[in-house]
Every structure is written in C-alpha cells, then in structure tokens.
Design brief:
The structure is a single chain. With 458 residues, this protein is an alpha/beta fold. The protein has 3 domains: 70 residues, no CATH class; 116 residues, Aspartate Aminotransferase, domain 1; 187 residues, Aspartate Aminotransferase, domain 2. The chain is 44% helix and 15% strand. It is built from 20 helices and 15 strands. The strands form 4 sheets. The chain has a 7-stranded mixed sheet, sandwiched between helices. Strands 11-12-15-14 form a 4-stranded antiparallel sheet. β14 and β15 form a beta hairpin. It starts with a helix and ends with a helix.
Length: 458
C-alpha cells in the first residue's frame, strides 16, 4: 500500500504547472484520459514490485510523451528509396510546386467553383478542367471523377447497365488491392461478354459477339503486365471501326495514360490519350496521379453527347472532385502546354528522366557519409547499381538504370533489422531488400541532405 500512496490523484496532477501546460495544448479530455491510463499502468507496475516513488516521478514525463505521440499525424513524410517512382503505397505522384500552390489557395479561400462570375448563376466545377483536357487530347468534351477505376465504373454504368459489354479475355486485368475488371463491370450493372483467348483476340471475335443487347465495347490497356510470344490484339483504330459500324460506343481504358511521348524521357512508348482519341475511341479513360504526375483523379474524354450522358448519371455527384484537387489538377494540366519544361516542373517526370550517371555521382557522394552514420550501429554502406521502375502499373516490364546504396550488416537477418530501424526513424527511409542487403535506390532523392538528416535523427 505504501507504494500506491506515492501516486498522486488525477485532480492533484491536473493542478501541477506541468500538467496545466499540457491541458492548454491538448485539452482536458485528452489529458485526463491519458493520465488515467498512465496511473493504471503505474499501479500495475507497483503490483509487480516497482517502486511507487519512482513511478510517480516518471508519471508527468511519460504523460507528455503519450500526448505528443497521440497528437502526431499518421500521415507524415517518408523517403521513397524503393526504386519505384510511382509507389501506390507511398502516395504515387509528388505534385509540382504550381499544383501545391494552387491547392493551398483553394484550401484557404472561397472559390468560384460552381459559380458563374459572368452571369451570376450556378456554374459547373468541371468547366475549370474541360477546356484544358480537350486542348491536350483533341477530344470534343471531358469530365472528371475521383480516380480511373471510378471513370471506368461510371462509363460502364452509363452505357452498359442491363446490357452487354464486350471485352477481350486477355484484357480482364486485376489492378492493385485485388480489384478486378470483371468485378467492376458487375458493379456497373453490365453483363460481361468475353471474346478471344488469353493471348490472341481478333476482329472477328468482337464482330461475332455483337448483338442487339450490346451496350458497348471495352478495350483495356494491360498496363500492369505483358504477354509475349504468340499474341494478337485488336488495335483501338480497328475496334473503333467495328464499334461505329455496330452503332455502339468504344470505351478505351488507358489506365495510366500519357499526355506526352514517354520515349523522350528514355522510356518505352506508352499509349497517348490524344492518339486513342484520334484512333476513333468514343470515350477514353485515364489516371491523373500516375504518368500525368498530378493528384488522384480519373479523366474521361470523348464525344460530346456521351460525356453529357455520363454527367447526367447520378453516380457523377458521388464520384466528383473537391475544389482542392480541381485546383491542383488545373495547375498540373497547364504545365503540359509547355512540354519542353515538363522535366523541370513535374517531379514524376524529373525522377524518371534522371540519368544513371547523375544518380551514381550522388551515390558516390553519399556512401562514405551514410557509412559513418551506420557504423556505430554495426552496418556498412557501399555504392551499387540499381534498376528503377515506374510503378502503379505503368510500363510493367521496363526498368530504368539507376544507382544507390547497398547497406549490409552481420547476420542473415541484418537487412530486415536495418529496414525495420530505418522505418522507425522520425522521417522513415523506405528501401527494398535484395541479395542479402537493404538497397536504397536514389532515383527519387532530390537532396542529399534529406537522407543524411533522416539517418542522423536519434
């Protein structure tokens, strides 16, 4: 009992200057709850033989730590040194400074989001992006929802609900998080009609499946895998002729999609949205947060009357974007008006276009400094060659020569131990384990100091 008497009551604690300061910062509800939890833990420790006076002395410092930890956001910056530029689990694209500024202005101010300043009546939020999307893609019209899966969903629902949607068996992809195209089609109310085989689909397969019940033809860019060898697929241009002859719309889902030719950055060519439109697709869907380098969004461009039908779908309101993302997307799209400066302005394309020589020089600079920081903990750092990838389903078989740091230590579990240690830093450092070492691919490291500061943190 003597040990328990050393512990103050809740009310006694609340009167101390230290806890009063915590009350001002965190509020009474949070402080009292944390204090009761700490007192319960102290009583349990005393029952186990701990000294009551020592437990009482630790109470307020521990309370301050608990409250600081509880108030810390679970969304905080990390260093993406995985070698995957567009890492879905790390938030994909980093926004351009112009997009960030536009988003901040949108957060801090009322905007004429759905207000016609000229006429004084109600406007439409998509108008802020429609003109830019049409200009950059050559489409008649455009609309926007919150991601590309939603774009495909609403398009299928608008034209395929209660009807048949024809798609090649080889294009029935599964995207991240185990979401499958057949499941999306089912949720949209469309009846899936598979044609062709896994590796070969021909024009006659589509033509043979057309019926009066057909609502649309769906083409899906297999952006997250490749089938090689004895293969055949029907091009968008060929499919557009088949669809037009049958009087049904062709929906071409590009997935990542690109507004510029990726070969200019040393990458394999990806389907461009403007090309899909020019090939005759009635509707084209693509993402905003992948190769485009903007915030999460799903774009639908195509024929004016079809876009109008999509905008009339009740799902559109459920899937619409808020003012913050619209502002950031508008700023991002404006950058594409000057494609020669894209690598300067868009972090995604800047990272993808960095030369191996530039990254190798960075690795050579950092290796001895990182080695000095890790040696006290029993680990070593040397330079190494890497192969980066785009990520998020884009260019799945293509890698880009890169360079990085190879971190090693004693014991077979050294990479896992070090990986766990680096993930626990105030600014977590995320790499990948390969061949018995933790590899930090430096392709996405803008500043040497960012890594050094992260590793030097206690």
């Amino acid at each position: 009992m003597e040990g328990f008497r050393a512990l103050p009551s809740v009310e006694q604690c609340l009167l101390t200057p230290e806890v009063r300061a915590l009350l001002a910062e965190h509020g009474r509800t949070a402080v009292v709850a944390a204090l009761r939890a700490r007192l319960d833990a102290a009583r349990a420790a005393i029952r186990g033989g701990a000294d009551g006076v020592a437990e009482a002395a630790r109470l307020v410092p521990a309370l301050a730590t608990d409250l600081a930890e509880a108030s810390r956001s679970t969304l905080f910056p990390v260093l993406n040194l995985t070698g995957t530029v567009l890492h879905t689990n790390l938030g994909r694209a980093i926004l351009a400074p112009e997009a960030i500024r536009a988003a901040v202005i949108a957060m801090a101010n009322p905007l004429a989001l759905e207000f016609d300043l000229g006429g004084g009546g109600r406007g439409q939020r998509d108008e802020h992006l429609r003109g830019l999307l049409c200009e950059l893609t050559g489409a008649e019209d455009a609309t926007i929802v919150n991601n590309n899966a939603a774009a495909v969903l609403i398009a299928l629902n608008t034209f395929g609900q209660g009807r048949e949607a024809i798609v090649s068996r080889g294009e029935l992809i599964e995207i991240g998080g185990a979401f499958r195209m057949p499941d999306i089609m089912t949720r949209a109310g469309a009846k899936l009609v598979e044609v062709g085989t896994t590796n070969r689909t021909h024009p006659r397969d589509y033509e043979g499946a057309l019926r009066t019940e057909t609502g649309l033809i769906l083409k899906v860019h297999t952006s997250n895998y490749r089938i090689k060898g004895f293969t055949a697929e029907v091009s968008g241009a060929e499919l557009s002729q088949i669809a037009r002859k049958a009087g049904v719309p062709l929906l071409n889902d590009l997935g990542s999609g690109s507004l510029v030719d990726m070969t200019r950055f040393g990458l394999r060519r990806e389907p461009m949205v403007a090309e899909a439109v020019a090939d005759g697709a009635d509707l084209v869907t693509f993402s905003g947060d992948k190769l485009l380098g903007g915030p999460q969004a799903g774009f639908i461009v195509g024929r004016r009357e079809l876009i109008a039908a999509i905008n009339g779908n009740p799902l559109k309101r459920a899937l619409r974007l808020d003012k913050i993302r619209i502002a950031a997307i508008e700023a991002t799209l404006r950058l594409y008006r000057n494609p020669d400066r894209l690598t300067e302005c868009l972090p995604t394309l800047r990272f993808l276009s960095r030369s191996r020589a530039e990254i190798a020089a960075q690795a050579a600079r950092l290796a001895p400094q990182v080695d000095d920081l890790l040696r006290p903990h029993g680990f070593a750092a040397t330079t190494c060659d890497c192969e980066s990838q785009v990520g998020s389903g884009a260019l799945p078989t293509d890698t880009v020569p890169s360079a990085g740091l190879r971190l090693t230590g004693p014991g077979g579990d050294a990479p896992d131990r070090l990986s766990s240690r680096l993930r626990g830093l105030p600014v977590p450092v995320i790499g990948h384990i390969r061949d018995g070492a933790l590899i930090l691919d430096l392709r996405c490291l803008d500043r040497d100091a960012a890594l050094l500061e992260a590793l030097a943190a206690p």
